[in-house]
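Students often ask why inverse folding is considered easier than folding. One informal answer: many sequences map to the same fold, so there is more than one right answer. In these notes we will look at a single instance of the problem. The structure comes first.
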């Protein structure tokens, strides 16, 4: 029985998971032929028809290629959600993001977006806190949250790490995170670092009267990641950090579904391997949606004005996707419609090459429901970490008051030093 997947009359149902792919066929194949291969190989088919296929399987589980745009090489495929194991992200991605990438018929393939149906949404926990829960936790209502990454990335011992964190908190930052490649080394063991750093966090809270949080990086093999998360919980921590790409969907689900009452900070180290090529891989938008669905509370999405790639349009679209509850289809933006149901909105994290001089320009684009992180932009301050942290808060305050940084710096010495050191990006009122 030769299956045909293209059916341009098909209308997706509310029970369908819909994928939008960009496809470049290998020479000798047409877009239609490759669309058939992609739909088949990601679901119930293979390269030839098989004697073991049953009519009920084709009837129930055969996906439909219901849209083919020959101008843009984009197709839409509707999959009956019963094709997938609800609540199992590794399996879902093994279908719609698996073998199809290795087929000879495909020169380039990019999963641009996934629209999850309610039946799949309901099978994941989603964020425990989300934007509003995090704001309540930190008692910060109407400004961006501010954070730093302890630098050097790795190398400090546990006490030195904790001291840099302490200086960052008393300088005025809300959050301190481990760097993405800091886990548990000979010179800096996770358990001791968590203990020392949370001890300094408590001290900084007493001294500042402000709530402070520590994103402890628990990235490791699943059982060990869970043990580290439980340790953070026992030490009075409120957050863990996890590298979602290198750590994997299964371990992220295990951390979320352990229901430890911890907020999850998602670092995306390694995403550039497959998100940066506009013709191949998977969009950062899709990576962020999967992470929100599994249940992270915040995720790095790019900082536009910083050192990492990510266009203003893409970063704004990702911020919208993860912090809104309903997304309408937007062909230009390569965004499918998405009703997020009960899945809470999560914080966009803007980090990478950020320093006080760039903060107003960033806030002018993404406004205030963001987390701004500066690593080198705090610890590289001529007067050290504490004053670097203060300069970050001053830059946020200047942006909120809509006072140009150079003017505000006249009576804010920490900020003055920072913008003398690194310059600043002026914001023209009403620029956007
Ligand atoms: C930033 C950072 C973050 C990047 C990740 C770093 O440090 O700690 O990992 O922000 O990029 O290691 O580069 P700096 P993204 O502030 O010193 O640059 O946020 O784009 O995922
Ligand atoms: Mg880092």
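Output (designed amino acids):
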């Amino acid at each position: 029985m030769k299956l045909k997947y293209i059916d341009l009359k098909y209308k997706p149902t509310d029970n369908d998971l819909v994928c939008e792919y960009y496809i470049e066929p290998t020479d000798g194949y047409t877009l239609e032929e490759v669309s058939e291969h992609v739909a088949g190989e990601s679901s119930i088919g293979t390269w030839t028809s098989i004697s073991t296929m049953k009519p009920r399987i084709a009837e129930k589980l055969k996906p439909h290629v219901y849209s083919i745009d020959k101008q843009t090489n984009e197709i839409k495929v509707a999959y009956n959600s019963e094709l997938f194991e609800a609540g199992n992200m590794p399996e879902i991605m093994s279908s719609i993001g698996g073998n199809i990438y290795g087929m000879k018929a495909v020169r380039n393939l990019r999963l641009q977006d996934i629209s999850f149906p309610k039946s799949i949404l309901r099978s994941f926990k989603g964020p425990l806190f989300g934007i509003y829960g995090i704001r309540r936790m930190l008692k910060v209502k109407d400004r961006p949250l501010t954070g730093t990454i302890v630098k050097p990335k790795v190398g400090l011992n546990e006490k030195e790490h904790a001291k840099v964190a302490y200086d960052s908190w008393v300088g005025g930052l809300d959050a301190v995170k481990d760097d993405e490649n800091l886990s548990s080394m000979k010179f800096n063991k996770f358990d001791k670092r968590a203990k020392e750093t949370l001890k300094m966090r408590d001290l900084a809270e007493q001294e500042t009267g402000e709530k402070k949080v520590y994103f402890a990086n628990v990235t490791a093999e699943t059982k060990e990641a869970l043990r580290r998360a439980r340790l953070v919980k026992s030490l009075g921590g409120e957050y863990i950090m996890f590298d979602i790409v290198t750590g994997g969907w299964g371990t992220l689900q295990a951390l979320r579904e352990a229901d430890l009452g911890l907020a999850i900070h998602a670092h995306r180290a390694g995403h550039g391997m497959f998100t940066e090529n506009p013709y191949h891989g998977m969009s950062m938008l899709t990576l962020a949606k999967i992470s929100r669905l599994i249940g992270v509370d915040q995720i790095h999405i790019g900082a536009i004005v910083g050192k990492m790639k990510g266009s203003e349009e893409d970063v704004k679209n990702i911020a919208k996707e993860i912090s809104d509850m309903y997304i309408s289809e937007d062909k230009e933006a390569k965004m499918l419609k998405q009703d997020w149901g009960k899945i809470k909105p999560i914080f966009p994290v803007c980090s990478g090459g950020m320093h006080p001089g760039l903060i107003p320009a960033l806030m002018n684009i993404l406004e205030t429901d963001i987390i701004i992180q500066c690593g080198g932009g705090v610890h590289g301050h001529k007067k050290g970490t504490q004053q670097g942290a203060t300069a970050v808060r001053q830059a946020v305050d200047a942006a909120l008051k809509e006072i140009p940084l150079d003017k505000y710096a006249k009576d804010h010495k920490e900020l003055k030093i920072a913008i003398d050191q690194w310059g600043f990006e002026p914001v023209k009122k009403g620029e956007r």
